[in-house]
Fold each of these.
Amino acid sequence: MKNKFIGISDKSFLDLFSISHFALGFFVGLILFIFQKKIIVRPELFFIIGFVVLILWEAFEQLMRFINHHYPELAKSLIKIFPDCWFAEESLLNITGDLFTGLIGLIVIFIIIKSIS
């Protein structure tokens, strides 16, 4: 059970990349608010759209890993464009942690926006 919760990149529930997933959720929420202020009035819509964006991001990350595994020549070209860490395998526990920290980012920006509106 050692290091299953925090620490090991792409294996633990929380790792260094959890910070970027939190930021993703935070900025997705901020963008939703900026472009559609009415969405804050309907929190369920805010969280549904925000969480769908987080899931799509994870799907994109998994696509990069699929390409790396099944199409290594294409992956070599893509690594010149995208960070190579996007091509590393992730555990299901880590993917769950990524979605969780992104959702926390959404919640934080929602609370901030509601408190100043």
Amino acid sequence: MKLKNVSRKWDYLKTWEGRYKKFKVQIGEGTNKLFGSTCDYYYFVVNREEDDISYNSLWTDNKYNTLKEAEEAAIKWIDEKLRTMK
């Protein structure tokens, strides 16, 4: 999956978007501080409107140490979801 940085110039934390098997994938930096500007973790959000499927890794308190880990977890989640839909 190719990720594109879609952060605006005034954003403290970065956001990336990509597509994988018709799912829109967003990966964002997160922080534990109220007004933090440093990344403490990464999380992902997946959405597929045609089947009304969405998931946010923070719903199950899944946080990742690197952007690559979050990307791999998103791909794994999508593959598993598609397997269970068959």
